[in-house]
Amino acid sequence: MTNTDWDAEAATFDDETDHGLRDAVVREAWATRLRSWLPDRPADVLDLGCGTGSLSLLASEQGHRVTGVDASRAMVEQARAKLAGRDAVFFVGDAAAPPVREERFDVVLVRHVLWTLPDPARVLRHWQGLLRAGGRLVLVEGVWGTVSPVGIPADRLTALLAPLAADVRVERLSGDARLWGREVEDERYAVLARP
After folding, report:
1. Do 125 and 11 form a contact (C-beta atoms < 8 A)?
2. Number of Cβ atoms within 10 Å of the Cβ of 12
3. Would you state the pLDDT for residue 5?
4. Which of 7, 45, 149, 194 has a CA 20 to 30 Å removed from the CA of 104?
């Protein structure tokens, strides 16, 4: 649903405070959230729509094994460079149908991607199949803009997850300016779902 040329955006993508996580306060805010969302023990994390690998890097620093997938070759190249020497692999591919095996991951981590996909219900069913028993979906989404808002509201996402997950929890993120490097008024949230 977005016509952005992500290869062209890759060179400056990390300049956005909440993308590159270069600001120490923003970086620590995301690291803290990830610690609360990801397992305590080392786990296999699939970061879909990984971009330049900023969340992948935080997960790796917390001891997790990361597989990242992004449709942009330029983004994947940056992620590979950012995580060089770490227990992480990256593939160019479609987040809706990533080039990975089913029942392989403890966590499917997705930030600001689901809203761009044409059939979120189908994609969520597919992502559920990528999880091992006891795995979890960690979906960071929102609705951005006031004139022509884009995104997926939390109530819609939780309704889509209802038939797939026994445990669905919404964590509101709009009120935490540290995550974004500024105050935000639009709807931003994370959904944690366990099938």
Report:
1. no
2. 10
3. 81
4. 7
